[in-house]
Specification:
Layout lengths: L1 H24 L7 H16 L5 H24 L5 H20 L3 E3 L16 H7 L5 H21 L2 H11 L1 H6 L4 H27 L1 E3 L6 H16 L7 H21 L7 H52 L1
Antiparallel strand pairs: 1-2
Helix pairs in contact: 1-6, 1-9, 1-10, 1-11, 2-3, 2-4, 2-9, 3-4, 3-9, 7-9, 10-11, 10-12
């Protein structure tokens, strides 16, 4: 169970990194997530049953996610549809698109060569020969994929483009005053975000051995829960990168879900658990911030009072000397 939870955490962490770009960096609540996540799984599954290389299927799934992000962005910036509504419109349309891609509501991948049996003794491939004889190969493959995504994203966010993206979410007027095209930046950010989300869906489909048209339900809430947990724990610590915050938040969230299942909770209740968890964390974080602000105000008031008393003593001492 421990290794299974870790593997799922790392797969979902890629999705959370995508949600982090739209929700935290761009300040764009992108509901497209619930459609682009199963779309990545749909594309990968449809390609795998046709004999396409599993790694190539990941890149094609990412390209599909980028197209979806582009459509959401264009609807928002060109047609002036609000960000929330643009995401809902594309998410709704993707349900039909995903059914078209798969041709049915579910594609099983049993007996098909995919990313996690690519290393089997019967069909080792290049990756299999590299990892032959090593335990927990599935976990290693997932860690490698997450590490690649994290390093690429860390690099991207340190470039001029990355700084412009972060500035766009904080202060759009500043970006416009600098002569940058905020609309192109927003569309580009949504393309990156949804390509990562689709990649996560493609990996999960191969990991669980099937793709289902309903596998994206509640994905955005899962992503937000992970981000809020990570942000509540490490949000004010500048030494931790935002990608690390998202990954740690995902691990804690998956550990909570695994514990809920371990104590006998019905899997159908997990969506309710997630919703309650998000509300509870937001409430506790607000309370914590309020308490910290109250303590800071008390310290400032105490310091100001002490300074005032010192001035009074100085004046009294001066009068006595006169």
């Amino acid at each position: 169970m421990f290794f299974g939870t870790l593997e799922q955490s790392f797969i979902f962490a890629i999705m959370v990194l995508g949600v982090y770009i739209s929700y935290k960096i761009l300040d764009f609540p992108d509901m497209t997530t619930d459609g682009s996540f199963p779309m990545g799984g749909s594309i990968a599954a449809a390609l795998l049953v046709k004999g396409v290389n599993p790694v190539l299927s990941l890149f094609i799934a990412m390209a599909g996610g980028a197209v979806v992000g582009f459509i959401t962005g264009i609807i928002h910036v060109k047609l002036k549809v609000t960000n929330l509504l643009a995401g809902i419109i594309v998410m709704t349309g993707l349900y039909s698109v995903n059914l078209r891609i798969m041709g049915k509501s579910n594609i099983p991948l049993f007996g098909v060569t995919h990313l996690f049996n690519f290393t089997s003794a019967e069909n080792p491939g290049v990756l299999g020969r590299l990892l032959s004889g090593i335990d927990h190969v599935t976990l290693i493959v997932v860690i490698l994929l997450l590490l690649l995504v994290k390093l690429a994203l860390d690099f991207l966010l340190k470039t001029k483009f990355g700084f412009a993206l972060k500035a766009l979410g904080d202060n759009e007027s500043l970006v416009i005053s600098l002569g940058l095209d905020e609309k192109k930046l927003k569309v580009a950010g949504l393309m990156i975000s949804n390509s990562l989300i689709a990649l996560s869906g493609a990996i999960l489909a191969q990991y669980q051995g099937f793709a289902d048209v309903g596998m994206g339900s509640g994905t955005i809430v899962t992503g937000l829960a992970s981000i809020i947990i990570g942000d509540a724990l490490f949000g004010k610590r500048r030494i931790v990168s935002i990608t690390t915050i998202a990954i740690v938040g995902t691990m804690i969230y998956r550990a909570i879900i695994a514990t809920a299942l371990k104590i006998g909770m019905n899997p159908s209740d997990l969506k309710l658990v997630t919703s309650v968890l998000v509300v509870a964390i937001i409430f506790l974080k607000d309370r914590k911030d309020a308490i910290e602000k109250g303590i800071q105000n008390h310290r400032e008031h105490k310091a100001a009072k002490a300074e005032k008393m010192n001035k009074v003593r100085d004046i009294q001492r001066g009068n006595a000397e006169c």
